[in-house]
Amino acid sequence: MSRAGRLLGQLARAAATSLTSSATAASQASAYTVPQVQKLAAASTAARSLHTSLGTFAANLSTLDAEIEHATGLERQELEKAAKGVDPWHEDWLDAPFGTPENPVVVPSIEASRIVGVPDPYDDSIIWWDLIEDGQPPKQIVDGGEYFVLKHEPEEGGHH
């Protein structure tokens, strides 16, 4: 027998089973009034919804708990902060006024140095990268560009 034949046979058996169970359900349902059937259908839907949402919630908790439980060092700190909704690396785009030597853009970091990228003033598809360090005077990465300064914010209870 070909694979297609086997699949058609399986489909036919599934359809027959479905029709039989539908007929049985219909005969049982005739004993109920319309409002009772509506209440039973609503309760069944609510139970299915609660069952799947609780399972998903529990699965997510156990996976996250297991990841944090088995992690150590920096990975554990990242997972703990992610669970609290905190970005440990401050990777968001800085929305600050144009940095000047007198009023540079302040870049926060838990490390003593940080890599900063700025677009080329003539071709914004090119990004220029440079390292800024704690204690440095305001640094300009490209000619005519902004000035940056690092603000070192070490973590309390950190591993360093």
UniProtKB/TrEMBL annotation:
<dbReference type="Pfam" id="PF01215">
    <property type="entry name" value="COX5B"/>
</dbReference>
<dbReference type="InterPro" id="IPR002124">
    <property type="entry name" value="Cyt_c_oxidase_su5b"/>
</dbReference>
<dbReference type="GO" id="GO:0046872">
    <property type="term" value="F:metal ion binding"/>
</dbReference>
<keyword id="KW-0479">Metal-binding</keyword>
<dbReference type="GO" id="GO:0005740">
    <property type="term" value="C:mitochondrial envelope"/>
</dbReference>
<dbReference type="InterPro" id="IPR036972">
    <property type="entry name" value="Cyt_c_oxidase_su5b_sf"/>
</dbReference>
<dbReference type="GO" id="GO:0006123">
    <property type="term" value="P:mitochondrial electron transport, cytochrome c to oxygen"/>
</dbReference>
<keyword id="KW-0862">Zinc</keyword>
<protein>
    <submittedName>
        <fullName>Uncharacterized protein</fullName>
    </submittedName>
</protein>
<dbReference type="GO" id="GO:0045277">
    <property type="term" value="C:respiratory chain complex IV"/>
</dbReference>
